[in-house]
Amino acid sequence: MANSNEKNNQANIVEPVIRGGSALNNISTIVRRELKAYFSAPIAYIFITLFALITGIKFILLFFIDGQATMRNFFDWLPIMLLVFIPPVTMRLWAEERKHGTIEFLLTLPMKTWHIMMGKYIASMIFYMVSLLCSLPIPIMLYFLGEPDWGQILTGYFGALMLGGFYLALGLFISAFFLDQIIAYIVILSSLAMLSFAGWAFVPILLDGTFSGLGEFALKYVGVTGHLESLNRGIIDLKDIVYFISYTAVFLFLNSFFVNSLKFDKKYFMKGFILMVALLFGISFMINLIFADNIQLGRFDLTQNKIFTVSPSTGKVFKELKYPVTISYYVTPGEKMPVQLKNLEREVRDKLEEFKRISKGKLVFKVFYPDPNSATAEKLAKRKIVPQQVQTLASDEIALKMVYSTLVISYLNQKDEVIKLFDYNMLGDLEYIMASRIYRMTFSVDDTDYENKDLFTLNRAPEYIYSDMKEGDVKLLYLVSDPTILKGKLPDKFVGIKDKVSEKLKELMTASDRKISYRLVTGSDKEYARYAQVLVAKGSFAVNDMIMDDKKLTLDEAEEKKNGKSDAKKSDEVFISGIYITYRDKDDASISTVSLENVDDLIVNINKKLSKLIKRTRPKVALYAPRKNPTQQEMMMAQVYRRPPPQPRDDFQRIEKLLSSGNYEVVRVDFTEKQPLPEDVKTVMIIRPENLNQRQLYEIDRLMHEGKNFIFAVENQQLDISKGSVGKIKVVCKKIDPGIKDLFKKFGVTVEEEVVLDENAEILTVYAEEKVEVFGMQGVQRRPVPIDHPAHVKVLSENIDRKYAVTNRVDTMLYYGGSPLTVDLELFKKNNLKYSKLFSSSKKSWSVKSKAGEISTTVPEKNEYHPNQALGIMLSGKFPSLYVGKPVPAWPDPPPQPNQPPPSPTPKKDEKNSIVGDTKKSTIIVLGCAEMFNNSFVNAPQHRRLLTNMIDILTLDENLVNIRSKTYEPRKLKAVSGKQIMLWKFIVIGLCPLLFIIIGIIVIMRGHFSSLRKDEYVTGGEIL
User: Fold this and answer.
1) DSSP conformational letter for 800
2) 839: helix, coil or strand?
3) Which helix (H) or strand (E) covers residue 739, if one does?
4) How far is residue 67 from each of residues 145, 157, 174, 970, measured CA to CA in Å?
5) What is the mean pLDDT of residues 413-424?
6) What is 548-601 written as a DSSP string?
7) Adjacent-strand bridge partners of 301
């Protein structure tokens, strides 16, 4: 009965084959047979279970420690996992057939060999994909615990399929050569290991250290993992797809060719097989060589924010440039680079090409290959272009190699911006680094050595200097004396100078398209004495170049006159050859002496002068952050110990340094009558104001009316947290009156007189009191102790609204001792103001009334929480004025200085109301905490990013922050409890293995397992 059933089953499978089905039917028949063989064997379920367990454990071990919602760790380690997984899956596909002799029967069936081969390959791919599906709990977990980049995860899985398909094709090919599965397993494992390790940095380094160029060849054209890097980052580069598809196709074709040759004489076909192998691998290698280095097929960035694609915002930055930017890339040639940096030049070139394309002619880049041991290296070092030591291997020894990789941005006459680039990880941030520096460079002109005079050569002058000028904007007066006045004593350096200078100025006038005009002024000209006198007044003294009050002076007498030591006397031995420059009849400059010694550089020198005349100023930001005057006790201690009086304490001086390093001009103001808020700023920062008077409020109100932007960091209290000797934490509150309540109330904002507390707290160092005994005397000392406290409020990622440019890429922050903000939405609507809540407290937050003295911070019951309190808001629109129609408040008299008599009253000026005209639109950012920007916390990465975001948006352009949002952003996990962590660990590690164990047991219990026999090939049987 059993034999009868087996024959019937065999007939059911063989019948459609014998009838000569289509290719699709034949392949599907083999696929069904192979899948039945896979999933009818218990070893398959054991194997999938082990694969799921190992990959799950490997991923989850560091997942909650890293705290990042990404699968990069999984995909980076997948090639290693497949080294163990793929060989057992493929080792028996042909070896088992040859061992049991079923291959002869198989090849006599009325189907083509490639049908059988494709059936086996597709079945193995399905088995692999089922195994890969066991990792699905990972993205499910990421969905609930964070905000993963789904584009990056999608390309990671696509890369896993490409890699698995390639490995399976290779394993299937090798399996056909052997009768023994164990031997096939060893050879497949060794081959896959070679392909995988060839793409790892240390192997190519080792190869290059032994045979120069071999490591680079292995990395580009042999190694597999190098072609997975882009896919794992979220980029589909078609050249990587060409690599996987071409080699997969080669192995599948050779597999079919070799199996088909088993029907014929082996000796006759072996020569043809070897030639076929050489031909196909040669073609595949040439295809990859062409597309890897010469032809750009296409590149698709699937990351959420397109972080590896140049954004339109960068194009806007380039579009607004009036003059082109030159980028010089100094890099060591690829053949001399360590293997781990072989592709760096190509990656940077690709970025620069994309910048060049989107800039539409506003960016020019050049690549230079300096030698660290040449004389040029010294000149480059003066410009801070220096090589860096990189470890490599040479003759089996670790060696240090000096290599260049530096970008230099040049714009007009500004100081070059130097960017050192020795890390692939910087490529994700390169767009923002370059765009931000280029943008800021357009605002300032610094004094430069001008060693690189190519920037101001004649043929480039119209492009860089004169493009936005009109005809006649620049006027040059060339003052030259009559050479006969020296009675044959004219120095050689002035012989024929007038003609030489005239030729140069004609060239310059033509090159500038007559935007520059010049006029020759000789000694007989009525204006000669006047302009010569102006040159002298400007300090333009030079050899044989002086005249004053229409009296001719010798050089020594002129110098004495300049220094006030002598009166002018007549002399017939003076010669003037100088240039007076005017720009739009407003600014002027001069070149004191033009002789044969410097006439060749005349155009360069004129352009240098003009570039400074048309200079812009750096973006200006006003900062008002009151300094703390020394206490009376500190003053007395200084007197006792005969020390100089202590200077006022500045808790916010690092803000000034931070913004200055970003190429902002920061104006620190005391906000008094003698030092008011400047008129030419666009953004004003007011940090921790105290007792603002009516005149100060008026000045803020007036500037707001004029369209200035403001950042307010306002506190109603300061906290002092300490730990007592018995372990009790003591919180003492000091009240502050910012004096800005009336102004905020006018447009509907209130900084509450409360302290925000939150169970999600940062760990900070506070002082603990402990009893000590010294020489028999007891006392109390304070020592630093790290604690987490509800007043150390941690603003969580989930409570930061990143859709606004202000909070883009801003992660967890500290909101220490701050207040909640409340807003009157009805008043906003009435005044047509736009309101945005930037970040808030968590669900486990509450607040207590701030009062002088100790306050309670006991955690309340859950129903007493005040969740999601606004901590930072942004308002924009036309703000109603508090002082329109009211008289201008007078400046109060300055307070008396310590140990000084009171100043006499200042007479008050009769000022009229200056708040007139239409209200202009402005933007205001209000934070209820200033402590986050003090010297202790402002350098924290998230606080620094928030500060620069606010300043960039309000002062410069939102485009910069839009570009910054594209750079790599760590995607942190939400806060999870210990129980949640245990649950997710079980789901990731144990859910799929448990499921396949149950399925395997059910299959075993139903008795569906059978063994593979020679005469039962097409009925299915045990494979593994």
Assistant:
1) B
2) strand
3) none
4) 10, 21, 42, 9
5) 76
6) ETTEE--HHHHHHHHTTSS-----S----EEEEEEETTTEEEEE----TTTGGG
7) 235
| Cβ atoms within 10 Å of 908's Cβ, excluding its own | 9
Place of tokens 């005017």: 582
Tokens standing for 787? 């604690």
C-alpha separations of 78 from 159, 232, 498, 1011 in Å: 10, 11, 78, 32
**What are residue 649's phi and psi, to 5 degrees?**
-85, 130
- Among residues 798, 814, 727, 717, the alpha carbon closest in space to that of 763 is found at 814
Cα angle at 654 between 648 and 658, to 5 degrees? 150
Confidence of residue 538 (pLDDT cuts 50, 70, 90): low
Query: What residue type is 521 in one-letter code?
Result: V
Token pair for 355:
């910048």
- DSSP calls for 249-309: HHHHHHHHHHHHHTTS-HHHHHHHHHHHHHHHHHHHHHHHHHHHHT----EEE-STT-TTS
Question: pLDDT at position 838, please?
Answer: 94
Of 992, 968, 802, 983, the closest CA to residue 141 belongs to: 983
Q: Which H helix or E strand runs over 176?
A: none
Question: Which amino acid belongs to residue 198?
Answer: A
pLDDT greater than 50 at residue 16: no
**What is the band of 215 on the pLDDT scale with cuts at 50, 70, 90?**
low
127-136, 790-799, 880-889: least confident range: 880-889
Encoded amino acid at 637, one letter:
M
Report the C-alpha gap between 967 and 434 in whole angstroms: 12
Q: Which residue has the tokens 């939150």?
A: 758
Q: List all residues 6 or more positions away from 575 whose beta carbon is below 8 Å from its beta carbon.
A: 481, 483, 485, 486, 490, 491, 494, 544, 545
* Mean pLDDT confidence for 924-935: 94
Which residues, listed in sequence order, are joined to residue 828 by a DSSP beta bridge? none
> How far is it, in rounded angstroms, from Cα 702 to Cα 678?
12
Q: What is the pLDDT of residue 191?
A: 85
pLDDT for position 508: 83
Q: Which pLDDT tens digit goes with each residue over 910-924?
A: 455 567 778 889 999
CA distance readout (Å), 697 to 74, 674, 715, 928: 57, 16, 17, 18
- Taking the CB of residue 309, how many other CB atoms lie within 10 A of it? 16
User: Phi and psi at residue 264, in whole multiples of 5°?
Assistant: -120, -175
Q: Could you give the CA distance from residue 156 to residue 136 in angstroms, rounded to a whole number? A: 13
Predicted confidence at residue 456, as pLDDT, reads: 37
pLDDT at 224 over 70: yes
Q: What is the CA radius of gyration of the chain?
A: 39
- Give Cα 517 distance to the centre of its chain: 46
Closest Cα partner for 181 from 43, 80, 280, 55?
43
Return the higher-pLDDT residue of 310 and 120: 120
What would the 3-class secondary structure string for 956-1017 be?
CCHHHHHHHCCCCCCCECCCCCHHHHHHHHHHHHHHHHHHHHHHHHHHHHCCCCCCCCHHHH
Helices (H), 624-761: 632-640, 653-661, 694-705, 741-746
For 389-393, the CB contacts below 8 A with 24+ separation are: 390/338, 390/340, 390/341, 390/422, 391/338, 392/205, 392/208, 392/209, 392/338, 392/339, 393/205, 393/206, 393/208, 393/209
Cα(804)–Cα(706) distance, integer angstroms = 25
Name the residue with higher pLDDT: 135 or 724.
Answer: 135
β pairing state of 397-403 and 405-410: unpaired
Q: Encoding tokens for residue 1?
A: 């009965």
Structure tokens of 636?
A: 């007395």
Q: Is residue 220 within 8 Å of residue 207, measured between CB atoms?
A: no
Asked whether the beta carbons of 531 and 479 are under 8 A apart, the reply is yes
Q: pLDDT tens digit string along 580-617?
A: 888 876 567 788 788 888 888 788 778 777 766 765 56
Residue type, 14: V
Q: DSSP states of 614-657 as a string? A: T--PPPEEEEE-PPBPPPHHHHHHHHHTT-PPPPPB-TTHHHHH
